Amino acid sequence: MIKVGVLGARGRMGAEVCRAVEGADDLELVAAVDQGDELESLGAAEVVVDFTHPGVVMDNLRWCVEHGLHAVVGTSGFDPGRLDTVRGWQAAKPGSNVLIGPNFGIGAVLMMHFARKAAPFFESVEIVELHHPNKADAPSGTAYRTAELVSAARAEAGTPPSPDATTDELHGARGTDVEGVHVHSIRLSGLIAHQEVLLGGHGEIFTIRHDSMNRESFMPGVLLGVRSVRELPASLTVGIESLLGL
Ligand SMILES: NC(=O)C1=CN([C@@H]2O[C@H](COP(=O)(O)OP(=O)(O)OC[C@H]3O[C@@H](n4cnc5c(N)ncnc54)[C@H](OP(=O)(O)O)[C@@H]3O)[C@@H](O)[C@H]2O)C=CC1
Ligand SMILES: O=C(O)C1=N[C@H](C(=O)O)C[C@H](O)C1
């Protein structure tokens, strides 16, 4: 049995994770912590799952690393600077592995994988992410990570920047720029989590779209992370693609 603690346990994702852990024969939910609760009860866990808020996740993660707990993090908001900070904590206190999953949906991981593969073959690429209006951050962590992967693949292949003649822009009309990739964020009631990667070439458009229809869809990826994090080869891993053999 792997002893699991959940941070953000009363939130939309955290509550789903608690249900999934309680329903798994090889996992035991030993702590369910939310805003205002003491972190100390997490000390009974081997693996902590964090689905909280980009504004608090770094404090949570530092606490986990300092207490030697492995962490599976779904909370968004990780840029290269934050990843370096986590590496610094791990260097100071080795022993805990951290797995940060920008998206735990299997289809979403495949969307990012295929976008990275396709990116060098097209002149233009832009990303549209669409989410429920309760989401705190924009762009989404998934879109940010997709843009990073797409940008790196194009740079490695020597693909020039996407053409764009815009010289006169109302602020925000072209979205935000993540490493040279334009990302557009929609917030709309009725949505859960969706993303399109639009790739444009000579006389053809290739669109890769993923839709999360409910939050249960993230659970196979989260549980895979919980089961794998203790044995990961690196102390900090971003994305679950390696766990899927991608
Ligand atoms: N990687 C992935 O696959 C996915 C990632 N996410 C990400 O997960 C995060 C959470 O999303 P979601 O569940 O929708 O958000 P919610 O707002 O529904 O849940 C977050 C929960 O964390 C609580 N919380 C806030 N601060 C703390 C703290 N310091 N300690 C413990 N708990 C705290 C909140 O309490 P209160 O409401 O009182 O502030 C709330 O109950 C977001 O960053 C989202 O982008 C979401 C879906 C999938
Ligand atoms: O807030 C959400 O809902 C989601 N957040 C993650 C993100 O920022 O990419 C993952 C998924 O898109 C759902």
TrEMBL record:
The residues responsible for catalysis, as annotated, are: H131, K135
> What gene name does this entry carry?
dapB
UniProt KW keywords: Amino-acid biosynthesis, Cytoplasm, Diaminopimelate biosynthesis, Lysine biosynthesis, NAD, NADP, Oxidoreductase
Residue span(s) of domain Dihydrodipicolinate reductase C-terminal: 107-235
* Record's function text: Catalyzes the conversion of 4-hydroxy-tetrahydrodipicolinate (HTPA) to tetrahydrodipicolinate.
Assembly and partners are described as: Homotetramer.
What lineage is this protein's organism placed in? Answer: Bacteria, Bacillati, Actinomycetota, Actinomycetes, Streptosporangiales
Residues annotated as binding NAD(+) are G8, A9, R10, G11, R12, M13, D34, G74, T75, S76, G101, P102, N103, F104
What is the predominant subcellular site recorded for this chain? cytoplasm
Q: What is its EC number?
A: 1.17.1.8
Q: What is this protein called?
A: 4-hydroxy-tetrahydrodipicolinate reductase
User: What SUPFAM superfamilies does UniProt report for this protein, alphabetically?
Assistant: Glyceraldehyde-3-phosphate dehydrogenase-like, C-terminal domain, NAD(P)-binding Rossmann-fold domains
Q: Name one Pfam family in it.
A: DapB_C
Gene3D superfamilies membership: Dihydrodipicolinate Reductase, domain 2, NAD(P)-binding Rossmann-like Domain
Chemical reaction(s) catalysed: (S)-2,3,4,5-tetrahydrodipicolinate + NADP(+) + H2O = (2S,4S)-4-hydroxy-2,3,4,5-tetrahydrodipicolinate + NADPH + H(+); (S)-2,3,4,5-tetrahydrodipicolinate + NAD(+) + H2O = (2S,4S)-4-hydroxy-2,3,4,5-tetrahydrodipicolinate + NADH + H(+)
As for subcellular location, the record says: Cytoplasm
Which EC class does it fall in?
oxidoreductase
- Quote the record's binding site residues for (S)-2,3,4,5-tetrahydrodipicolinate: H132, G141, T142
Every Dihydrodipicolinate reductase N-terminal domain range: 2-104
| Family as reported in the entry's similarity comment | Belongs to the DapB family.
Highest taxon listed in the record's lineage: Bacteria
InterPro entries according to UniProt: DapB_C, DapB_N, DapB_N_CS, DHDPR_bac, NAD(P)-bd_dom_sf
So, what pathway does this thing act in?
Amino-acid biosynthesis; L-lysine biosynthesis via DAP pathway; (S)-tetrahydrodipicolinate from L-aspartate: step 4/4
